[in-house]
Amino acid sequence: MASPARSRRDEYSEITRQALIDSAASLFAERGFAGASLEEVTARARVTKGALYHHFRSKRALFEAVFDAKEVEVIGQVTAALRNHSGDPTSMVRAGLAEFLEVCLDPGYQRIVLQEGPSVLGYERWREREEQYTLGIVGGVVSSLMDSGEYPQLPLDTVTRMLFGALIAGASAIAGAADKERVRAEVEMVVMRLLYGLRAAGA
Description:
The chain has helices at residues 4-35, 38-45, 49-55, 59-83, 89-103, 107-115, 117-121, 123-147, 156-176, 180-201. It is mostly helical. The termini are far apart.
């Protein structure tokens, strides 16, 4: 059993780490990766630079932690939307899609995950992280649709990856659009049309 002193140290360490992530998230969203300095991050978090390097070996490592935190938050929101919907499978998917697209309107998510993620992490690493967080939930949704009997049994991995690609492309289109609300509505319409097309393929 851990000693009380050790437990307090662990708790303080986690509080410090979270404060750094929160501080960096707001600065990266406001100024971008290049525009946010580590001095500003530590000042806003009210910790020393030594504490920052205890948790993160570099500014890029800190950015990746912020990126991961954003993705975990989004997956939680989308999963909750899917679980809380009691309608037919297609309506359930629409609810999850709507939640995801609402997230895509968030300026912090746009800048950190969609705009700066590929350049800061490198495209391959960014794609790997996106697949780690998003591909599984898309695959689960596709599997549920096929299991419902309303959709034909198609190659699960292929359909999952194609829908995943459509979602990532749609999210990027929203982030880069002047009229983000209009493009958000268009992305929702196109993705749902793709799903209706899959359902019609089994008719």
